[in-house]
DNA sequence: CGGATATCAGTGTAACTGAAATAA
DNA sequence: CTTATTTCAGTTGCACTGATATCC
């Protein structure tokens, strides 16, 4: 059933962690390609913009916790977004340890364009699945994430 | 329903590519931790050993195609496995461009130990799912991989 | 003081790119 | 001459670690 040397060995093909790695990588590439068409650089840029649009202004630490992005990496991401004028960071006067990160006008506009591309990438990714299977997959992944901890 | 600033924004929480990235990362960590307990270094070492055990000796190019690992990365992986005595590389006398990679006795023994740990990691990963949901997840991921191309 | 925040410098893994040398 | 294989040298995105200065 599987003696084509170009096929992954059955042991791996049925290994959930391996399947996840491959599918996630494929998805990452689809999204990255989609974002690149719009001048977007990293997938995490999109995540940060989306979080700010949804939650409103937040401190860097809160953003990091919400997005499961390390404080250190987030710092670099925000510096890039700031340089592009998509977010603004100002010291919080009520707690001067914090930076309040806000989405700029340009950031909101960029997010809308990126969003379309990202949704398109999801469509490509899920194309092989029936509508019922798509929601089923989302449900199963969400269930795994719930108990994933950090 | 979701105003905890420590929760990922709904937009991302329901984004398949984001879910996949997070779950795959979680899985990778579980597997890496499991392998580390047995002296294993990288997840891909396990994949190479498993492929050799299943398919038998193969050239590097064939291995790379089967495992979806880049020729360049595979070269480094095999050098490490070779240094550990888990695989042997010898020139193919019938096609002197090729290296025939074989699993050594020690490699077979190591694979058995690693395999137990990897299976344990899968159990941890899938613990939140019912048995039916686990096979369903594998089915959906396999379906996505089928049409993933490279 | 302890605890949280932002910042800075560095590591590790995986994925990828481009090019060379060798052999079919 | 073209193609395939191995090898080498580099880059990038992402995740993570540890340390420091600042502020509550």
Describe what this molecule looks like in 3D.
The structure is a homodimer of 150-residue chains. By secondary structure, the first copy, chain A, is mainly alpha-helical. Helices cover 65% and strands 8% of the residues of chain A. Chain A contains seven helices and three strands; from the N terminus they run αααβααββαα. Chain A has helices at 10-13, 16-36, 43-55, 60-67, 71-83, 105-126, 131-146; strands at 58-59, 87-91, 99-103. Chain A has a three-stranded antiparallel beta sheet with strand order 1-3-2. In chain A, α2 packs across α6 and α3 (43-55) crosses α6. Chains A and B meet through α1, α2, α3, α4 and α6 of A and α1, α2, α3, α4 and α6 of B. The first copy, chain A, binds a DNA duplex (24 and 24 nucleotides) through residues 21, 25, 28-29, 32, 42-44, 59-61, 69-73, 75, 95-99.
């Amino acid at each position: 059933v599987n003696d084509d040397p170009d096929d992954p060995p059955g042991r791996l093909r049925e290994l959930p962690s391996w399947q996840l790695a491959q599918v996630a990588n494929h998805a990452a590439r689809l999204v990255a390609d989609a974002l690149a068409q719009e001048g977007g650089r990293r997938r995490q840029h999109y995540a940060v913009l989306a979080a700010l649009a949804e939650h409103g202004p937040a401190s860097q630490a809160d953003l990091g916790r919400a997005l499961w992005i390390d404080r250190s990496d987030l710092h670099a991401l925000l510096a890039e977004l700031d340089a592009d004028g998509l977010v603004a960071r100002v010291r919080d006067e009520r707690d001067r340890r914090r930076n309040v990160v806000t989405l700029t006008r340009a950031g909101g506009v960029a997010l809308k364009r990126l969003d379309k591309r990202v949704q398109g990438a999801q469509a490509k990714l899920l194309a092989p699945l029936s509508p019922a299977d798509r929601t089923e997959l989302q449900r199963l992944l969400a269930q795994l994430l719930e108990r994933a901890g950090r």
